Amino acid sequence: MYLEKTTQSFEEVFGKKSTKNFFSPGRINLIGEHTDYNGGHVFPASITIGTYAVAAKREDNLMKVYSLNFEKVGVITFSLDDLTYKKEDDWANYIKGYVLKLKESGYLIDSGLEMVIFGNIPNGAGLSSSASVEMLAGVVFKEFFDLDLPTLDMVKLGKLVENEYIGVNSGIMDQLAIAFGEVDKAIYLDTNTLTYEMVPAAFGEHVIVIMNTNKRRELADSKYNERRAECEKALSILQTKLDIQSLGELSSEEFDAQKEIIGDATLIRRAKHAVYENERTQLAVKALKEGNLEAFGQLLNASHQSLKEDYEVTGIELDTLAEVAQKVDGVVGARMTGAGFGGCAIALVRNDAVDTLKEIVGKTYQEVTGLTADFYVAQIGRGAGKL
Ligand code: GLA
């Protein structure tokens, strides 16, 4: 349905037929939050909602892009010779940034494209709509220009777009999850070595429900960068005594033995989250592999608590969703997912308890926040590529 609409729109907007179709997913993170820029482990999965694109080559060096999600913005045109960030280019900056990074890395893009995109990832919900568009750009340009672009390099360029072009100092989790995703598998990634393992996301009688706060992620980017800077500060103090490159190298015992030298209560809590969350992630993957969903769920709950109390990236909306969900009969665990400050939480729920979860959490959430939450059962789907 989405692809047909995108194809039809391409013909209407550009008066010609598109030649190739693409899809790039969104992602959830099961556990391992705010660990990816601390050299820790993460455990995300690509989901079946994402961004579709259809495109065709042009003869000149102009790019003309249109999004069905931002129809009012209209067709955005830019030249391959001027890829500087422009606020008025809106969402297309993610494409421009990606093309710029490709060119800077020596890839030859010898003509422009027309492209229409259409996403069904709720906007600003923390399900990585921006990384989805970046990886979409990666697969589109790789395909049209026959680029020798290994998937991991495609991922790294996406991260560079966020860090250097958009100005968010994010880690590599989102782009990697989106590019390498596979149906019904989650990615157990060590962000220190970039080695990963595809783990069956087998929850038996249980499903993952995504719970959207529908709260705009205000100040999310600046707070995100602030957390990252706090972790770097804590690390640099620890490095005066310990021979480590990242917080992810420390066990919780090693951290507890040394933490006082950090000398600042807030910085200690931030670093503690990074260290303990990394450990929780490793334990959670082990529990899942052993089929111990109860242990897995408890680690999800502990992750949320740490993100609330030590890392302070949740807020009343995410806390209400996660904490009310945790008490519903049939829920094994629940936590915020993604950067935080609004966005989405996830709950691991027994099939027959999904309706009760929606009812109880939805009602309490409305009473507490005045907002309406949305619920979707997550399906873990393929990674970014040509259709
Ligand atoms: C955002 C970033 C990721 C990661 C998460 C938090 O999604 O893009 O790199 O840091 O937040 O785990």
Q: How would you portray this structure in words?
A:
Strand 4 and strand 5 (76-79) form a beta hairpin. The protein is 42% helix and 21% strand. The chain has 387 residues and is of the alpha+beta class. It has a domain at 2-200: 2-Layer Sandwich (Ribosomal Protein S5, domain 2). The strands form 3 sheets. It has a 6-stranded mixed beta sheet with strand order 5-4-6-3-1-13, sandwiched between helices. The protein is built from 11 helices and 13 strands. Alpha-D-galactopyranose binds at residues 29, 33-34, 36-37, 170-171, 173-174, 338-339.
Could you please say which CATH topology of the domain at 2-200 applies here?
A: Ribosomal Protein S5, domain 2
**What is the radius of gyration computed over CA atoms, rounded to a whole number of angstroms?**
21 Å
Look at the helices and sheets and give the structural class: alpha+beta
Report the count of strand segments. 13
Question: Notable features of this structure?
Answer:
387 residues, alpha+beta, Ribosomal Protein S5, domain 2, 6-stranded mixed sheet, binds alpha-D-galactopyranose
State the gist of this model.
By secondary structure, the protein is of the alpha+beta class.
Topology:
Blueprint: H1 2-14, E1 20-29, E2 41-42, E3 44-57, E4 62-67, E5 76-79, H2 93-104, E6 113-119, H3 129-144, H4 151-166, H5 173-180, E7 185-190, E8 195-200, E9 206-212, H6 220-238, H7 252-258, H8 265-289, H9 293-309, H10 316-327, E10 331-337, E11 344-350, H11 354-369, E12 374-377, E13 385-386
Helix pairs in contact: 2-3, 2-4, 3-4, 3-5, 4-5, 6-8, 8-9, 10-11
This protein binds alpha-D-galactopyranose.
Alpha-D-galactopyranose (GLA) is lined by residues 29, 33-34, 36-37, 170-171, 173-174, 338-339.
